[in-house]
Design brief:
It is built from 4 helices and 7 strands. With about 140 residues, it is α/β, with parallel strands linked by helices. It is globular, with a radius of gyration of 15 Å.
């Protein structure tokens, strides 16, 4: 049985490339900086999303996920059902040790100790796609 989107509109124009900030305000800021003439594709449940052509002329979607794994899982499931292929989480993270403020960090794995990851079948460590994390 095909997935029926729960958060996004069933016919939303989702790009294959998607950036996922948690915060809807950050989604708007990213959209105005990265998309030429961004068009809002979602505002349901306060999860703002935008699509349009990026600087390279290719379509880009920026969709907020809200807080937590369950919310992100629901949004990502909808995005994939609507055609997303490459989904990258962007945003802030807590730092440990001597990480300077404003540092750019590209994670190549994540600990999957939360309930949503476990429910979706993740093992203890979830590795990132090498092509995406090395780009």
């Amino acid at each position: 049985m095909p997935h029926s989107p729960q958060i996004l509109k069933p016919h939303a124009a989702v790009a294959e490339r998607v950036l996922l900030p948690g915060d809807p305000g950050r989604a708007l800021r990213l959209a105005t900086q990265l998309i030429d003439g961004p068009r809002m594709l979602n505002h349901h449940r306060g999860l703002w999303g935008y699509s349009g052509p990026a600087a390279d002329g290719e379509p880009l979607t920026i969709q907020s996920t809200g807080l937590g794994g369950p919310s992100a899982a629901a949004v990502i499931s909808d995005l994939v059902a609507l055609g997303a292929c490459r989904v990258i989480r962007v945003g802030t993270a807590a730092g440990v040790g001597e990480t300077p403020l404003g540092a750019l960090i590209v994670a190549d794995a994540a600990l999957a100790g939360d309930g949503a990851s476990r429910a979706l079948g993740a093992t203890e460590r979830a590795a990132a796609d090498v092509e995406l994390s090395d780009a």
